[in-house]
Amino acid sequence: MTTPAGSLRIAALLGLAAFSAQSQAVTVFSSDFESGLPAAISPGAAALTGVQNFAGLGPSGNKFAGSFLRSPTGNVVTLSLTGLPTHNALSVGFLFAAIDSLDGTGNFPSGDFFRIDIDGVNRFRESFANALDSQFQSYVAPAGGELARKQDLGFGGPGGFYRDSAYDFNVDGRFQNFAHTASSVTISFSIEGEGIQDLSDESWAVDNLTVTAFSTTPPVPEPSTYALMLAGLGALALARRRSAG
Ligand SMILES: [Ca+2]
Ligand SMILES: [Ca+2]
After folding, report:
1. Which listed ligand is nearest to 130 at the C-alpha?
2. How far is the CA of 122 from the centre of ligand 2 (A)?
3. 170 and 93 Cβ atoms separated by less than 8 Å
4. What angle (nearest 5°) sits at the alpha carbon of residue 60, between those of residues 55 and 62?
5. What is the distance in A from the centroid of ligand 2 to the CA of 243?
6. Residue 136 Cα, ligand 2 centroid: separation in angstroms?
7. How many whole angstroms from 152 Cα to the centroid of ligand 1?
8. What does the DSSP 8-state code read for residue 225?
């Protein structure tokens, strides 16, 4: 049985828990590529392109739509952000389109590795394969991450090697919680390797790109949390005085 004083103790403890576990997530970049190319992106040879039959793939509220940023292999897309809030980790989220006859791991025309570098340090590098069923793709999507696999979603084809795949990298922990504290960051995206080929043969694209900064030990608690904690402790002290008297 929970007494009134017991309930107040629980409320006070909840206030303390909210204070100690407080973390802040701030979206520091977001683009669905429907309003032109964001100034923070240096696209190299990449360009805004209609998503064709990728449209509608993705979870509710985060689907391929309109246009996305499509790049040939062997090209680097760079996102540069400055003035970041205090943080100790960054997460990157986006929908990834593996377009046409990417060839996975191996020797040319294989050797197609999608990679992400943060401030010049490689953080992700896996191969993608659409062309032949015998080719090896090193990337294995977690549950819910694979939106389409070796389907014709437009671009090259139909038929032949020109199949496409789609992924939701938001559900993959490998794109989350990169240790980072500096006030600026450079994130580069590319498919590189000995297998790079022309845009008409293979390419990739990104839609709904977000970068989130996390602070798991904020220097100042939220005013509302602080007030809740004080209210809980004050009520507890009052209850103790009443029960003691
Ligand atoms: Ca879009
Ligand atoms: Ca290739």
Report:
1. 2
2. 21
3. yes
4. 60
5. 76
6. 12
7. 19
8. H
**pLDDT tens digits, 195-243:** 999 999 999 999 999 999 999 864 455 566 556 666 666 666 666 666 6
* Measured distance CA(117)–CA(160) in Å, rounded: 33
**What's the count of helices (H) and strands (E) in the chain, helices before strands?**
2, 13
Rounded distance from Cα 195 to ligand 2 centre (Å): 4
Residue 85 CA to ligand 2 center (angstroms) comes to 39
Alpha helices by DSSP H, listed for the chain, are 4-20, 223-244
Which ligand number lies closest to the CA of residue 37?
1
Q: How far is the CA of 199 from the centre of ligand 2 (A)?
A: 10
What would you report as the CA-atom Rg of the chain, rounded to the nearest whole angstrom? 24
pLDDT of residue 238: 62
Residue 10 has pLDDT above 60, yes or no: no
The mean per-residue pLDDT over the stretch 80-95 comes to: 97
**CA 166/CA 138 separation, integer angstroms:** 15
Distance from the alpha carbon of residue 33 to the mean position of ligand 1, in angstroms = 5
Residue 234 confidence (pLDDT) = 63
Cα of 102 from ligand 2 centre, angstroms: 5
C-alpha–C-alpha distance, residues 217 and 209, integer Å? 26
pLDDT digits (tens, 9 = 90+) for 27-52: 999 999 999 999 999 999 999 999 99
Tell me the residue ranges of DSSP E strands in 137-184.
146-151, 164-168, 178-179
